[in-house]
Protein backbone atom coordinates (compact mmCIF):
# COMPACT_ATOMS: atom_id res chain seq x y z
CA UNK A 1 0.00 0.00 0.00
CA UNK A 2 1.34 3.44 -0.94
CA UNK A 3 2.44 5.60 2.00
CA UNK A 4 0.45 8.86 1.95
CA UNK A 5 2.11 12.23 1.95
CA UNK A 6 1.36 13.02 5.59
CA UNK A 7 3.29 9.90 6.60
CA UNK A 8 6.35 11.09 4.75
CA UNK A 9 6.08 14.48 6.41
CA UNK A 10 6.23 13.05 9.91
CA UNK A 11 9.16 10.84 8.94
CA UNK A 12 11.20 13.63 7.38
CA UNK A 13 10.56 16.59 9.65
CA UNK A 14 13.81 16.43 11.56
CA UNK A 15 15.93 16.19 8.41
CA UNK A 16 14.75 19.33 6.62
CA UNK A 17 16.12 22.31 8.48
CA UNK A 18 16.64 26.00 7.72
CA UNK A 19 20.07 27.23 6.49
CA UNK A 20 22.19 28.85 9.19
CA UNK A 21 23.24 32.49 9.05
CA UNK A 22 26.89 33.03 7.98
CA UNK A 23 29.39 35.88 8.03
CA UNK A 24 29.07 38.42 5.22
CA UNK A 25 31.30 38.02 2.17
CA UNK A 26 33.70 40.79 1.16
CA UNK A 27 32.27 43.10 -1.53
CA UNK A 28 34.30 43.62 -4.72
CA UNK A 29 31.77 45.19 -7.11
CA UNK A 30 28.54 47.16 -7.17
CA UNK A 31 26.69 44.94 -9.67
CA UNK A 32 23.30 44.20 -8.13
CA UNK A 33 20.32 42.00 -8.95
CA UNK A 34 16.66 42.56 -8.08
CA UNK A 35 14.19 39.74 -7.48
CA UNK A 36 12.12 39.11 -10.62
CA UNK A 37 10.33 35.81 -9.98
CA UNK A 38 9.88 33.52 -6.98
CA UNK A 39 8.44 30.01 -6.94
CA UNK A 40 7.28 28.30 -3.76
CA UNK A 41 4.76 25.55 -3.10
CA UNK A 42 2.06 28.24 -3.31
CA UNK A 43 2.56 28.91 -7.04
CA UNK A 44 4.97 26.26 -8.33
CA UNK A 45 2.41 23.91 -9.85
CA UNK A 46 0.66 26.69 -11.77
CA UNK A 47 4.02 27.78 -13.21
CA UNK A 48 5.50 24.42 -14.24
CA UNK A 49 4.21 21.81 -16.70
CA UNK A 50 4.46 18.04 -16.28
CA UNK A 51 6.38 16.11 -18.95
CA UNK A 52 4.83 12.67 -19.55
CA UNK A 53 6.45 11.51 -22.80
CA UNK A 54 8.89 8.58 -22.89
CA UNK A 55 12.18 9.44 -21.20
CA UNK A 56 14.60 10.82 -23.84
CA UNK A 57 17.53 9.35 -21.86
CA UNK A 58 16.15 5.79 -22.08
CA UNK A 59 15.42 5.51 -18.37
CA UNK A 60 13.42 2.75 -16.68
CA UNK A 61 10.95 5.42 -15.66
CA UNK A 62 7.41 6.54 -16.49
CA UNK A 63 6.95 10.29 -16.13
CA UNK A 64 3.50 11.20 -14.83
CA UNK A 65 0.93 13.79 -15.82
CA UNK A 66 -0.09 16.30 -13.17
CA UNK A 67 -3.35 14.47 -12.46
CA UNK A 68 -1.68 11.08 -12.18
CA UNK A 69 1.11 12.47 -10.04
CA UNK A 70 -1.50 13.85 -7.67
CA UNK A 71 -3.34 10.53 -7.54
CA UNK A 72 -0.10 8.74 -6.66
CA UNK A 73 0.91 11.43 -4.12
CA UNK A 74 4.10 12.10 -6.06
CA UNK A 75 3.73 15.89 -6.26
CA UNK A 76 2.59 18.51 -3.81
CA UNK A 77 4.05 20.13 -0.72
CA UNK A 78 5.24 18.97 2.68
CA UNK A 79 2.85 21.01 4.86
CA UNK A 80 4.38 20.40 8.28
CA UNK A 81 7.98 21.03 7.23
CA UNK A 82 9.72 24.41 7.55
CA UNK A 83 8.70 26.68 4.63
CA UNK A 84 6.38 23.97 3.22
CA UNK A 85 8.73 22.85 0.44
CA UNK A 86 7.73 21.72 -3.03
CA UNK A 87 7.61 17.92 -3.11
CA UNK A 88 8.45 15.84 -6.23
CA UNK A 89 8.79 12.11 -5.61
CA UNK A 90 9.31 8.68 -7.14
CA UNK A 91 6.81 5.86 -6.59
CA UNK A 92 8.11 3.49 -3.91
CA UNK A 93 5.40 0.98 -3.02
CA UNK A 94 4.93 -1.35 -6.01
CA UNK A 95 7.11 -3.42 -8.37
CA UNK A 96 7.57 -1.60 -11.69
CA UNK A 97 8.33 -3.95 -14.60
CA UNK A 98 7.37 -1.29 -17.16
CA UNK A 99 9.28 1.53 -15.48
CA UNK A 100 8.88 3.26 -12.12
CA UNK A 101 6.54 6.30 -11.97
CA UNK A 102 8.44 9.54 -11.43
CA UNK A 103 8.27 13.28 -12.10
CA UNK A 104 9.74 15.69 -14.64
CA UNK A 105 8.54 19.31 -14.63
CA UNK A 106 9.51 22.37 -16.68
CA UNK A 107 8.90 26.07 -16.08
CA UNK A 108 6.53 27.83 -18.46
CA UNK A 109 8.80 30.88 -18.33
CA UNK A 110 12.23 31.07 -19.94
CA UNK A 111 15.12 33.51 -19.60
CA UNK A 112 18.28 34.73 -21.25
CA UNK A 113 20.69 35.78 -18.47
CA UNK A 114 19.90 36.12 -14.79
CA UNK A 115 20.75 34.93 -11.31
CA UNK A 116 18.93 31.73 -10.31
CA UNK A 117 18.77 30.65 -6.66
CA UNK A 118 17.58 27.19 -5.56
CA UNK A 119 17.01 26.55 -1.85
CA UNK A 120 16.87 22.76 -1.61
CA UNK A 121 16.05 20.80 1.55
CA UNK A 122 16.37 17.29 0.08
CA UNK A 123 17.33 15.69 -3.23
CA UNK A 124 16.69 12.16 -4.59
CA UNK A 125 19.23 9.52 -3.63
CA UNK A 126 19.78 5.81 -4.03
CA UNK A 127 20.98 3.18 -6.46
CA UNK A 128 19.38 3.54 -9.87
CA UNK A 129 18.50 7.22 -9.42
CA UNK A 130 19.52 10.00 -11.81
CA UNK A 131 18.25 13.28 -10.34
CA UNK A 132 18.82 16.52 -12.21
CA UNK A 133 18.11 20.22 -11.78
CA UNK A 134 18.93 22.00 -15.01
CA UNK A 135 18.28 24.76 -17.52
CA UNK A 136 17.37 23.92 -21.12
CA UNK A 137 17.23 26.17 -24.17
CA UNK A 138 13.93 26.11 -26.05
CA UNK A 139 12.99 27.08 -29.59
CA UNK A 140 15.50 24.96 -31.51
CA UNK A 141 16.75 21.38 -31.66
CA UNK A 142 19.05 20.35 -28.79
CA UNK A 143 21.72 21.55 -28.13
CA UNK A 144 21.38 24.67 -30.33
CA UNK A 145 20.41 26.92 -27.40
CA UNK A 146 22.39 25.00 -24.82
CA UNK A 147 21.84 23.18 -21.55
CA UNK A 148 23.17 23.99 -18.08
CA UNK A 149 23.17 21.13 -15.56
CA UNK A 150 23.22 22.63 -12.07
CA UNK A 151 22.66 19.52 -9.94
CA UNK A 152 23.19 16.07 -11.42
CA UNK A 153 24.53 12.66 -10.52
CA UNK A 154 23.76 8.95 -10.48
CA UNK A 155 23.73 5.90 -8.21
CA UNK A 156 26.27 6.19 -5.37
CA UNK A 157 28.09 9.21 -6.81
CA UNK A 158 29.91 11.41 -4.29
CA UNK A 159 29.81 15.13 -5.09
CA UNK A 160 27.81 17.07 -7.66
CA UNK A 161 28.46 17.24 -11.41
CA UNK A 162 27.94 20.64 -13.08
CA UNK A 163 27.92 20.59 -16.88
CA UNK A 164 27.18 22.73 -19.90
CA UNK A 165 26.15 21.20 -23.23
CA UNK A 166 26.35 23.20 -26.47
CA UNK A 167 26.82 22.92 -30.21
CA UNK A 168 30.31 23.18 -31.74
CA UNK A 169 32.47 26.19 -30.92
CA UNK A 170 32.40 26.48 -27.13
CA UNK A 171 35.27 25.49 -24.83
CA UNK A 172 36.00 26.78 -21.33
CA UNK A 173 39.10 27.94 -19.48
CA UNK A 174 40.75 25.41 -17.19
CA UNK A 175 42.27 28.01 -14.87
CA UNK A 176 42.20 26.67 -11.31
CA UNK A 177 41.88 30.22 -9.96
CA UNK A 178 38.38 30.66 -11.41
CA UNK A 179 36.58 27.89 -9.52
CA UNK A 180 37.11 25.38 -6.73
CA UNK A 181 35.75 22.32 -8.54
CA UNK A 182 37.70 19.83 -10.63
CA UNK A 183 37.48 20.22 -14.42
CA UNK A 184 36.54 16.86 -15.93
CA UNK A 185 36.04 17.84 -19.58
CA UNK A 186 36.74 21.29 -21.14
CA UNK A 187 34.81 21.24 -24.43
CA UNK A 188 31.10 22.05 -24.19
CA UNK A 189 30.41 20.69 -27.70
CA UNK A 190 28.37 17.50 -27.27
CA UNK A 191 30.22 15.99 -30.25
CA UNK A 192 33.72 17.06 -29.20
CA UNK A 193 36.58 14.75 -30.10
CA UNK A 194 38.41 12.96 -27.28
CA UNK A 195 35.39 13.23 -24.97
CA UNK A 196 32.48 10.88 -24.41
CA UNK A 197 29.43 11.54 -26.57
CA UNK A 198 27.23 14.29 -25.07
CA UNK A 199 29.79 14.81 -22.28
CA UNK A 200 29.95 18.60 -22.66
CA UNK A 201 32.19 20.69 -20.41
CA UNK A 202 31.90 19.37 -16.88
CA UNK A 203 33.18 20.39 -13.46
CA UNK A 204 32.95 18.13 -10.40
CA UNK A 205 32.35 19.59 -6.94
CA UNK A 206 34.91 18.17 -4.51
CA UNK A 207 32.58 18.69 -1.54
CA UNK A 208 30.79 15.38 -0.74
CA UNK A 209 27.90 17.32 0.82
CA UNK A 210 27.05 18.88 -2.55
CA UNK A 211 25.11 15.80 -3.70
CA UNK A 212 23.34 12.65 -2.55
CA UNK A 213 23.01 11.26 0.98
CA UNK A 214 25.67 13.62 2.37
CA UNK A 215 23.72 16.61 1.02
CA UNK A 216 20.54 15.43 2.74
CA UNK A 217 22.29 14.51 5.98
CA UNK A 218 23.78 18.00 6.13
CA UNK A 219 20.36 19.66 5.85
CA UNK A 220 20.41 20.43 2.13
CA UNK A 221 21.87 23.62 0.74
CA UNK A 222 21.59 26.50 -1.70
CA UNK A 223 22.65 26.48 -5.35
CA UNK A 224 23.06 29.80 -7.16
CA UNK A 225 23.71 30.26 -10.89
CA UNK A 226 24.79 33.58 -12.40
CA UNK A 227 24.46 33.66 -16.19
CA UNK A 228 25.81 36.62 -18.16
CA UNK A 229 27.31 37.16 -21.61
CA UNK A 230 30.73 36.48 -20.08
CA UNK A 231 30.20 33.37 -17.94
CA UNK A 232 27.92 30.81 -16.36
CA UNK A 233 28.94 30.61 -12.71
CA UNK A 234 27.67 28.12 -10.13
CA UNK A 235 27.95 28.32 -6.33
CA UNK A 236 26.95 25.76 -3.74
CA UNK A 237 26.43 26.89 -0.14
CA UNK A 238 25.81 24.15 2.44
CA UNK A 239 23.88 25.25 5.55
CA UNK A 240 26.51 23.88 7.94
CA UNK A 241 29.84 25.05 6.66
CA UNK A 242 33.10 26.85 7.28
CA UNK A 243 33.33 30.61 6.83
CA UNK A 244 34.85 30.06 3.36
CA UNK A 245 31.67 28.43 2.06
CA UNK A 246 29.03 30.03 4.30
CA UNK A 247 25.93 31.49 2.67
CA UNK A 248 26.70 35.18 1.93
CA UNK A 249 24.76 37.60 4.11
CA UNK A 250 22.86 39.21 1.22
CA UNK A 251 21.81 35.79 -0.08
CA UNK A 252 20.85 34.59 3.39
CA UNK A 253 18.57 37.61 3.74
CA UNK A 254 17.14 37.13 0.24
CA UNK A 255 16.12 33.54 0.99
CA UNK A 256 13.48 34.90 3.35
CA UNK A 257 11.78 36.82 0.52
CA UNK A 258 8.22 35.71 -0.17
CA UNK A 259 7.31 38.16 -2.93
CA UNK A 260 8.89 39.37 -6.17
CA UNK A 261 8.18 42.89 -4.85
CA UNK A 262 11.08 42.53 -2.41
CA UNK A 263 13.42 45.54 -2.29
CA UNK A 264 16.43 43.38 -1.42
CA UNK A 265 19.44 43.26 -3.75
CA UNK A 266 22.00 40.54 -4.47
CA UNK A 267 25.62 41.22 -5.40
CA UNK A 268 27.22 37.89 -6.44
CA UNK A 269 30.52 39.58 -7.24
CA UNK A 270 31.02 39.81 -3.47
CA UNK A 271 30.58 36.07 -2.97
CA UNK A 272 33.38 33.50 -2.52
CA UNK A 273 35.08 31.64 -5.37
CA UNK A 274 32.42 29.52 -7.09
CA UNK A 275 32.43 25.76 -7.49
CA UNK A 276 32.16 26.09 -11.29
CA UNK A 277 32.67 28.77 -13.91
CA UNK A 278 32.04 28.14 -17.59
CA UNK A 279 33.79 30.88 -19.58
CA UNK A 280 36.68 31.48 -21.91
CA UNK A 281 37.81 33.09 -25.14
CA UNK A 282 36.77 29.92 -26.94
CA UNK A 283 33.03 30.37 -26.27
CA UNK A 284 30.51 33.03 -27.30
CA UNK A 285 27.89 32.29 -24.66
CA UNK A 286 25.21 34.50 -26.19
CA UNK A 287 25.37 32.40 -29.36
CA UNK A 288 25.35 29.04 -27.61
CA UNK A 289 23.11 29.56 -24.56
CA UNK A 290 19.71 31.30 -24.63
CA UNK A 291 15.97 30.94 -23.89
CA UNK A 292 16.54 28.69 -20.87
CA UNK A 293 13.71 27.20 -18.82
CA UNK A 294 14.05 25.33 -15.50
CA UNK A 295 13.66 21.54 -15.45
CA UNK A 296 13.58 19.27 -12.40
CA UNK A 297 13.37 15.51 -12.80
CA UNK A 298 14.31 12.14 -11.38
CA UNK A 299 15.17 9.59 -14.04
CA UNK A 300 16.11 5.99 -13.28
CA UNK A 301 18.82 3.92 -14.96
CA UNK A 302 19.06 4.95 -18.63
CA UNK A 303 22.03 6.38 -20.50
CA UNK A 304 24.01 7.32 -17.38
CA UNK A 305 22.81 5.57 -14.21
CA UNK A 306 22.19 2.37 -16.16
CA UNK A 307 25.32 2.58 -18.29
CA UNK A 308 27.58 2.96 -15.23
CA UNK A 309 25.75 0.45 -13.02
CA UNK A 310 28.46 -2.20 -13.19
CA UNK A 311 31.14 0.31 -12.17
CA UNK A 312 29.24 1.35 -9.03
CA UNK A 313 28.79 -0.36 -5.68
CA UNK A 314 25.13 -0.73 -6.63
CA UNK A 315 26.03 -3.65 -8.90
CA UNK A 316 26.20 -5.83 -5.77
CA UNK A 317 22.43 -5.44 -5.37
CA UNK A 318 21.29 -6.62 -8.82
CA UNK A 319 22.81 -7.64 -12.14
CA UNK A 320 21.27 -4.65 -13.95
CA UNK A 321 19.89 -1.27 -13.00
CA UNK A 322 16.50 -2.00 -14.59
CA UNK A 323 16.21 -5.21 -12.59
CA UNK A 324 16.90 -3.37 -9.34
CA UNK A 325 14.46 -0.54 -10.06
CA UNK A 326 11.73 -3.00 -11.02
CA UNK A 327 11.96 -5.24 -7.97
CA UNK A 328 12.88 -2.91 -5.09
CA UNK A 329 10.21 -0.24 -4.62
CA UNK A 330 11.13 0.65 -1.03
CA UNK A 331 14.65 1.53 -2.17
CA UNK A 332 13.14 4.71 -3.62
CA UNK A 333 11.52 6.17 -0.52
CA UNK A 334 14.32 8.77 -0.44
CA UNK A 335 14.15 9.47 -4.18
CA UNK A 336 12.36 12.80 -3.81
CA UNK A 337 12.99 16.52 -4.12
CA UNK A 338 11.98 18.94 -1.36
CA UNK A 339 12.58 22.50 -2.58
CA UNK A 340 11.92 25.47 -0.32
CA UNK A 341 12.02 28.05 -3.11
CA UNK A 342 13.33 28.96 -6.54
CA UNK A 343 14.20 32.61 -7.16
CA UNK A 344 15.11 34.33 -10.43
CA UNK A 345 16.90 37.66 -10.14
CA UNK A 346 17.67 40.21 -12.87
CA UNK A 347 20.13 43.10 -12.97
CA UNK A 348 18.49 46.13 -11.37
CA UNK A 349 19.30 49.64 -10.26
TrEMBL record:
Q: What is this protein called?
A: GH16 domain-containing protein
Write the record's keywords in alphabetical order, separated by commas. Answer: Signal
Q: Which residues form the GH16 domain?
A: 31-313
SUPFAM superfamilies tied to this protein: Concanavalin A-like lectins/glucanases
Q: Which Pfam families match?
A: GH16_XgeA (PF26113)
> What taxonomic classification does the UniProt entry list for its organism?
Eukaryota, Fungi, Dikarya, Ascomycota, Pezizomycotina
Q: Could you confirm whether the keyword Signal appears in this record?
A: yes
| Stored CDD domains | GH16_fungal_Lam16A_glucanase
Q: Where is the signal peptide?
A: 1-17
Question: What's a GO biological-process term for it?
Answer: glucan catabolic process
The GO terms this record gives for MF are:
hydrolase activity, hydrolyzing O-glycosyl compounds
Q: So which domain of life are we looking at? A: Eukaryota
Amino acid sequence: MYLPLFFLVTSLGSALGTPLAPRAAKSTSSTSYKLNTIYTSANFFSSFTFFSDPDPTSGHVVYQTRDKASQLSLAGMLPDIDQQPIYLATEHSQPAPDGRPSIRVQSTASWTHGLFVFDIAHMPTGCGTWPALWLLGSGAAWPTYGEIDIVEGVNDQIGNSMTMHTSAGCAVSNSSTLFTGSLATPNCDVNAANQGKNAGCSIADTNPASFGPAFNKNGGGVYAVQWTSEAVTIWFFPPRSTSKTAIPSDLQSALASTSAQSSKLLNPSSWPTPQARFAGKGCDLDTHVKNQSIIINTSLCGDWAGATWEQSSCAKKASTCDEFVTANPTAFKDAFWAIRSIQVWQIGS
